[in-house]
Amino acid sequence: MFVGERSAFLRYAIALSSVAVAFALRLVLDPVLGDYQPVATFYLAVLISSWYGGLRPGLLATFSGFLLADWFFVPPRHSLLISFARHWIALTVFLVVGGTIAYVIDSLQRSRQRAEQATHDALLRQQTLEKEVEERSRTEEALRESEGRLQLALAAGGMGAWDWDISANRIAWSPGLEEIHGLRPGAFGGQFEDFKRDIHPDHVESVLAAIETALKTRSEYYLAYRIRRPDGAVRWLETFGKVLAGSGGEPDKMAGICMDITERKEAELELAGLKDRLEARIRERTAELVESNRALEGSNRALEAEIRERKQLEREILEVSEREQKRVGQDLHDGLSQLLRGVAYLSQVLQENLAKRSLPEAQDATRITQLINEAMAHARGLALGLFPVKMEADGLMAALAELAANVENIYKVTCQFECPGPVLIQDNNAAIHLYRIAQEAVSNALQHAHASRISISVTGSVGAVRLTIDDNGQGMPRDAERRQGMGLRIMDYRARTIGALLKSRRVPGGGTSVTCSWRSDHSRPTE
């Protein structure tokens, strides 16, 4: 315990007690010493007081011993007068030596205290440093693990990360991105020309133009393009990036992610080819039917059979299209969306770890998370458009509500869904046709009528459902029934397929109202 940590009362009590003991000892020795060495025993009191209490208790002991010695042991006794020079010298020496002893011991105590405090502080600093080193080691290990998990997630999703230092013209690729480009780990040269060399010749200009636009406008960088691998294979890539400005406000870096979308592009091309072949087949078959109708005008029975065959073919085509859309939508929901959700989780973990360490890369990780969430929302929207109505009885209501919300979010127009009382439809096929009719009517209102307000309502009673789509657009042309377009024909065909009645009319003052009435024993209102 340091002197400064002892209570003042105890320090001064020890000083006075030691003086009292020295005084008692001098009384005992007085018959032997007489007036010789009147302050001899008080040196011990000064030593004890200074050692235990410090400077002030030591000075108190010195002064107290001086007074006691002068009063009791220096002639004339019981008086503060001093008769002999030797007593003056002894008392003066005692005051000087006692003060010096108190000062020296106090200095030594303080020096020892400072040394012990310095040692204590050094130990604390050493412990703090060891903790910081240990914490930094754990942080670096956590970052390595997080980076490993992120790289694994990116590789599993066919993605890779890139970072372009514009001022130094250095590009860093993750191992996953090198693998996408068909390179060995570490084989990428790191220069912009190395990246440009891999771009397919047909897409070089579009890629460079997109990069230049992003740098000039500080906007986000997004592009889908093709690359040519060293082995000659051609792959489709989709890239997302962000421009990072330096201290002067000029573009300093670009960073982002890149994913391999070859399979998706091939599927889109295959689907487009299938659509073209299907439309060509429909045109061919239609031409054949027209020719057959001309050749078989005299045979009503044969004509009716041909018409039934044509309707059956149209129905099968429609059913094949619906089934294919359902399959693609289910694959998007169960496959790509789940994978993106896992990547988003790992990216969020990385962002939180970086944010806890206050590292600047946390902002990049946050942007990666946002991009992945946007991709999830985009995939969900695609899946919903391809497979909108669930198998549950209330699937039509949920799908129409989602359609209205998507129209508002995407086209920035007012689109309301109204359903006074829940209507359950057990026939999922009929529900899908009703949804497609509403979807086509909304599309016509947006693309052709340029409406700014759309209303979708569905009502039900026992055995009947009424679907109405109203808009405030330009309205239907007056000769719409005579020159009915593909959209109106498809809506009419869907209505006839499920035995519904479809009506479209102009609204006085502008706008169009489309109404579809369907009766079935499987539709019923609920309380």
Description:
Strands 2-1-5-4-3 form a five-stranded antiparallel beta sheet, with helices on both faces. Strands 6-8-9-11-10 form a five-stranded mixed beta sheet, with helices on one face. The protein has 13 helices and twelve strands. The protein is elongated. It is α+β, with helices and mostly antiparallel strands and 527 residues long. The C terminus is likely disordered.
What's a concise summary of this model?
This protein is an alpha+beta fold and 527 residues long.
Instruction: State the name of the first-level CATH class of the largest domain.
Output: Alpha Beta
Low-confidence stretches: 522-527
- SSE class: alpha+beta
- CATH topology heading of the largest domain: Heat Shock Protein 90
Order of helices and strands: HHHHEEHHHEEEHHHHEEHEEHEEE
Biggest sheet descriptor:
5 strands, antiparallel
CATH architecture designation of the largest domain: 2-Layer Sandwich
The total number of structural domains is 4
The CATH homologous superfamily of the largest domain corresponds to Histidine kinase-like ATPase, C-terminal domain
The overall pLDDT, averaged over residues, is 78
Q: Any idea what the radius of gyration is?
A: 48 Å
Number of helices: 13
What is the molecular shape?
elongated
Query: What's the β-strand tally?
Result: 12
What is the helical fraction, as a range of percent?
55-70%
CA-to-CA gap between the ends? 83 Å
Placed side by side, the strands forming the largest sheet appear as: 2-1-5-4-3
